[in-house]
């Protein structure tokens, strides 16, 4: 992390079709800060994360961001027929992450025993853990986690909590969208 | 650049593993095998129309894997993850174009040798056909990638792809067929120009389509 990471949202609004999902979102996060986005289904939690990630254009407002991004979305983006280690390795190479960093991230999510299992054979929770491991290995300054607790068992939730705490302690920024508790004590909560 | 090479390598691996690279080749050879049965063993006739028919077969062969080029990556979130990492949609289009061409262009040119033998084409026609294919296949790959991006996520994308892509491929066919005849230098140059135009334009079309299709 070469510069202090920063994420500021100014008066952000999101329009999906004819529907205004949210407007006037203000958020300022400095290193070590985290935000928890909550709200009922369809409130626009995922859309907000996709806007921050630059995948969607906001209807109004702007985003200031310093630092690299990692998005852990609902879609795993892992090749189903490849072994887990190789599928994650593809992204690790793109991210410029070392093999050791990837191994460490896989251990942090308890995936070391699944390294040679094809991604298509993994369960929902295991795939979610793989996505989180990719996020950890990426070494990105800003994590965007979309429903990170989905499908995770108690042990995995604990691992997720530890990973998030380590990221924040290292000066990272985190924005998580979740409708369930994920073991995060956020700096601020954003209710949509 | 490194990211681009990684994406190309991944696409090639998938094309190979899922048979996407073999299918066009088998199709192409099948056309060359079936043709003499359909129009009879008239050697002169076959030699006259064989080159053009192989070009048409190459065009259709390029279209075969179109549904597998972009749609699965869009559905799996692969393209989103690339974009989050700062890899532009156009760069993704370039990577897909290169990978698709490597997977079907050179294999088709090699398969042209047995196919030409089956149709009894003479040496000079084969040479011109190979040159024509070398120039036309990058254009065909570009068209296929642009079409794949435009139709990704739509129902019945396969049938629609044909309707989108085939009319746009007409110039390639006309100049390709023209290049087969005697004194086809002008047609060869026009074929190269058309192909170049498609290769240059396709990544932008694919990029715009990927951006517009994102939800």
Automatic annotation (TrEMBL), chain A:
Q: Name one GO molecular function term.
A: ATP binding
- All copies of domain ABC transporter, residue ranges: 7-190
Give the signal peptide as a residue range, or say none if absent: none
Check the record and name the Gene3D superfamilies matching this protein.
P-loop containing nucleotide triphosphate hydrolases
Domain of life of the organism encoding this protein: Bacteria
SMART domains with a match to the protein in the record: AAA (SM00382)
Enumerate the UniProt keywords alphabetically.
Answer: ATP-binding, Cytochrome c-type biogenesis, Membrane, Nucleotide-binding, Translocase, Transport
Q: Cross-referenced Pfam families, in alphabetical order? A: ABC_tran (PF00005)
- Cross-referenced PANTHER family, in alphabetical order? ABC TRANSPORTER I FAMILY MEMBER 1
Q: Which NCBIfam families match?
A: ccmA (TIGR01189)
What name goes with this protein? Heme ABC exporter ATP-binding protein CcmA
Which species does this protein come from? Sphingomonas natans
TrEMBL record, chain B:
Q: Which UniProt keywords apply?
A: Cell inner membrane, Cell membrane, Cytochrome c-type biogenesis, Membrane, Transmembrane, Transmembrane helix, Transport
Checking InterPro entries in the record gives: Cyt_c_biogenesis_CcmB (IPR003544), Cyt_c_CcmB_bac (IPR026031)
Report the membrane topology from the UniProt record: Multi-pass membrane protein
Q: Where in the cell is it found?
A: Cell inner membrane
Which segments cross the bilayer? Answer: 21-39, 45-66, 97-119, 131-150, 157-178, 190-210
Fetch the PANTHER family from UniProt: CYTOCHROME C BIOGENESIS B-RELATED, HEME EXPORTER PROTEIN B
Per the record, the similarity remark reads: Belongs to the CcmB/CycW/HelB family.
User: What does the record give as the function of this protein?
Assistant: Required for the export of heme to the periplasm for the biogenesis of c-type cytochromes.
Q: What is the protein name given in its UniProt record?
A: Heme exporter protein B
The species this protein belongs to is: Sphingomonas natans
Taxonomy, top ranks, is:
Bacteria, Pseudomonadati, Pseudomonadota, Alphaproteobacteria, Sphingomonadales
